[in-house]
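G., before I forget:
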Amino acid sequence: MSGGAADSGLHERTLADLAEGLATGEFSSCELTEALLARIDRHGTTLNAFITVTAGQALEQAAQADKVRASGDAGRLTGLPIVHKDIFCTEGVLTSCGSRILDNFVSPYDATVVERLSAAGMIMLGKTNMDEFAMGSSTESSYFGPVNNPWNTQRSPGGSSGGSAAAVAARLVPAATGTDTGGSIRQPAALTGTTGIKPTYGRVSRYGMVAFASSLDQAGVITRSAEDAAMLLGVMAGCDSRDSTSADHPVPDYVAALAKPLKELRVGIVRQHFDEGLDEKCADAVRTALRTLEEAGAKLVEVDLPNIDLSVPTYYVVAPAECSSNLSRFDGVRFGHRAGDPQDLLDLYCRSRGEGFGAEVKRRIMTGTYVLSAGYYDAYYLKAQKVRQLISQDFKDAFESVDVIAGPTAPTTAFAIGEKTDDPITMYLNDIYTIGANLAGLPGISVPCGLIDGMPAGLQLVGPHFGEGTILACAHQYQQLTDWHTRCPEDFA
Amino acid sequence: MSSRWEVVIGLEIHAQLSTKSKIFSGASTAYGADPNTQACLVDLGYPGMLPVLNAEVLRMAVKFGLAVNAKIAPRSVFARKNYFYPDLPKGYQISQYELPIVEHGELFIRDDEGNEKRIGLTRAHLEEDAGKSVHASFDDATGIDLNRAGTPLLEIVSEPDLRSAREAVAYMRKMHSIVRYLGISDGNMQEGSFRCDANVSVRPRGQEALGTRTELKNLNSFRFVEKAINFEIERQVELIEDGGEVVQETRLYDSDKDETRAMRSKEEANDYRYFPDPDLLPVELDDEFVAAVQKTLPELPDAKQQRLVEQYGLKVTDAEILTVSRTLADYFEAVTEKTSAKPQAAANWVIGALSALLNKENRDINDSRIEAVALAGLLDRIADNTISGKIAKEVFDAMWFGGGSADEIIEAQGLKQITDTGTIQSIVDAVIEANPGQVAEYRAGKDKLLGFFVGQVMQQTRGKANPGQVNQILKDKLR
């Protein structure tokens, strides 16, 4: 097929739409896959959203999916395309984690997320670019270069799942997996006008997901609608005996739950979210969204998260501490980058790691090593754990009186590439509204809620533990009342 | 060593738990496989791999805790011990730090005066073993074998209650015997399944404050523990008496040179940056679990020893030897059960002749060439006077080296004891007749010659004559 995706219009459709098209025989998975691969081919370089495109493998999988469909055994996701953040291990395919230290690492196995989506019949088109080891909020720390925002290629798509967000926003693919340790799904979703969900900690298995901060990491998806996210989450979620922290908690039918109306939904508004630091136009967009919810019958309730201001400093103790340990395995001994001609063991370690890791990763390893050191552990790591408890308790208290907490996802719209790279603290503050959910292990979703000077803004909905059904329904109902999520960056229409 | 000095020793014993698979992965723990054939992606520390706790190690650790009267923690936590080494694939070892699974236990040994002495156990915690570096067979490079990486270990830490190298060995032997009784470790020291580090210090007798300690590594046999500690005590005392100071450091024992030497000082020690492992949930054990494990506890060495003394009237020292291993005690009891001989006689044979041959051939009691029922058969023939004790040793050797039951060997080799008085009398008569000179001397008062006559009779009967009868008849006839 040579007509290309622009002609077919397939790229414009959501996952739910495409599922119907496949089911009715309107087009085949091969046609769909070819159309999107052509589109990735055309726009991939502009955006730098991909580290690997697995065209050959994708076409084989698509042919297989069409066979399955012909035999009548197709599920709803059979033959639908997806891309994976390059943090997920994929058998036989480069899994770089955006780092030079893994730029030769071909995983011998599939992550649970990959395995489950693949078992459901989905076609993997490639692996997306990301901040190195998911450490960053702009996808600029990638060894493979920064990702450009489809809404304005001079700007960042956010991060760390910037490649996934940009690919979905530019309609190169209808869905992408991501991971979220401090906002890495929700913030790029907000900055690219896509929908991104980070489930409850433990909802989705971390097996095969290269670890950044194990107590915070959680896999999720970036899509064009809450409905699409619900379709995927139902397959990804569930207990996995290979991850001890995965939750043995039943997985509800998220798609069925979408129909729940907004009426009587108690929506919490956090006073602290509208303090200084939030761009006034972003604040307006969020306020408008909240009014939309209210007009549809939701009840807005003011809630207090008294310790939420401490979430960024707490995060920047806990996350680096865990990463300093998690990244110790990259030592040049068994896999990944190994320095040439090492003189001795110390030289092998120092140069393999020195050459293999980028500046932000090194900064966090050093911070983490420091906060765990004898004499500093109590003052930093232990103190941070205590504050984390307080923040969790604040959310718990708040959810006594509300069903979801709503607010901005990020303080501003997408910033220029290079704007914050010299100032880590400003960069870190981009996650000020998202980090709390990670510290408390809560599910959060970001949905598009406006365009400010041509750039998307995001509304974040946070739910109680295992409240994915509630926040997906709220997001879906909001998307029935608005069309921000259907807006497409002009150059990629 | 001058008695001015008191020695203070604490031991850290690493017992490898005898699970089939590793503590956090499904890979096999079998010893001796080709390098890196028993290391799965978890053991290799591959990106994205996560540890999953093997529940069997919890049962084993709890079993141990109960056996040493310890407190079983209702909640224990795995922590990461961070350091870089090529045989440590993840760059950290998963261990327990602040909250170990077992705390505050005790066991009893005999001190240097032979009195029972209580040794406190500070804690026992679960951890994974590292792999090992292979220096041979590579030019200019070091190989890494990760088969051992992830093997479950129970690290047992004693209080500094030991006061001599001998006590340290007694403690280690007792611990060795307990873990084997419990069936939680094979205790194989050659294969490194049971090894120990010793913390050693000395202080002037009467002083309360502890002296500066050194930690001795690489003590992989009872003998080395004793030798290394004694060397170290002497080194420390000499150092202090010469006006020097002991430096806190880790020292490696070199068994070839029989000396310890400095490995790294306190300043060079790693800062392990322990913190709770976020990949593993805290281990929570309820009373029900502990009670279920309690039911699986076997009779332990101390209880068994006491029972053997009370039930069979054994000498305490013999009961002590028999109960060092559960299988040896089981063997003894199996023999006793099947023989009409006295239990003490059975004990003498097991501890004496049998153990000697087992040791000589380096065999475990389970691989004894003479089964318990066969030994019982031999003891029966001694008890019913079919053979003498001396002949019995011959039969025993024949059973060991050639197989067969005692009865078969006695029958085939005609070793049956001569107890017929008439037969013995006629042999005695012949001996007296053949040795008139000695008879005269004996009758003149040289009593010692009785042995000569006994020897002559035994020679004639190839040892088969009942020694008691021979003695009596000779005495009567020579009177």
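Chain B has a mean pLDDT of 90. The longest helix of chain B spans residues 222-241.

More on Monday.
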